[in-house]
Amino acid sequence: EIVMTQSPATLSVSPGERATLSCRASQSVSSNLAWYQQKPGQAPRLLIYGASTRATGIPARFSGSGSGTEFTLTISSLQSEDFAVYYCQQYNNWPQVTFGQGTRLEIK
Amino acid sequence: EVQLVQSGAEVKKPGESLKISCKGSGYSFTSYWIGWVRQMPGKGLEWMGIIYPGDSDTRYSPSFQGQVTISADKSISTAYLQWSSLKASDTAMYYCVVTYSSGWYDYWGQGTLVTVSS
């Protein structure tokens, strides 16, 4: 099983600032990496797939980068609605996909 | 508009059986894989299994193989997740998901909360 490790577990950032979230895979997943956002009481929502392609309707302030084992999700200027939990997911070994444990992005 | 509408919350006792559902609309139900994801209270996301409604090809996570059964009725565009004997540790939110790419999960249902308690 490919293990996904996200860091940090919690990130405190002020509105308007940049947030950088990391995700590491235990083995190469090429660019087969997605990011999801989950707000309290809601289902997750797809943000990024293919490591760097924004899903339909996702604002340009969200960007993804990386390949192989190291990936980053960057939110360029945090809005109030961006404070949530973010999960990375590898699908290189589909259907045996695995998720990271999540990073909670909170208001500083 | 793609929609995955799941059945309502359930409260069950250990040992009871349960079948929850997920109705897809707004897309070709038989052409894309539909899966199930577990989220235990306060925890992360775990893939359970996935089915291709077109031919009922079903794959399970090793962690859930033998513990649950996934099925689909393409005549009513509905996928199911069922348990024959629930345990307290099955208490969780369960999401159905659809993948257009056989990769990432494009759409998610609203979730079904299952509570198992004596």
Concise synopsis of the structure shown:
Chain A is an all-beta fold and 108 residues long. Chain A has no helices and 11 strands.
Secondary structure topology:
The complex is a heterodimer of chains A (108) and B (118).
Chain A: E1 4-7, E2 10-13, E3 19-25, E4 33-38, E5 45-49, E6 53-54, E7 62-67, E8 70-75, E9 85-90, E10 98-99, E11 103-107
Parallel strand pairs in A: 2-11
Antiparallel strand pairs in A: 1-3, 3-8, 4-5, 4-9, 5-6, 7-8, 9-10, 9-11
Chain B: E1 3-6, E2 10-12, E3 18-25, E4 33-39, E5 45-52, E6 57-60, E7 69-73, E8 78-83, E9 92-99, E10 107-108, E11 112-116
Core attributes:
heterodimer, A: 108 residues, seven-stranded mixed β-sheet, four-stranded antiparallel β-sheet, globular, B: 118 residues
Structure description:
The complex is a heterodimer of chains A (108) and B (118). Chain A is mainly β. Chain A is 0% helix and 49% strand. Chain B has strands at residues 3-6, 10-12, 18-25, 33-39, 45-52, 57-60, 69-73, 78-83, 92-99, 107-108, 112-116. Chain B starts with a strand and ends with a strand. Chain A binds chain B through residues 32, 34, 36, 43-46, 49, 55, 87, 89, 91, 94-102, and chain B through 33, 35, 44-47, 50, 59, 61, 95, 101-111.
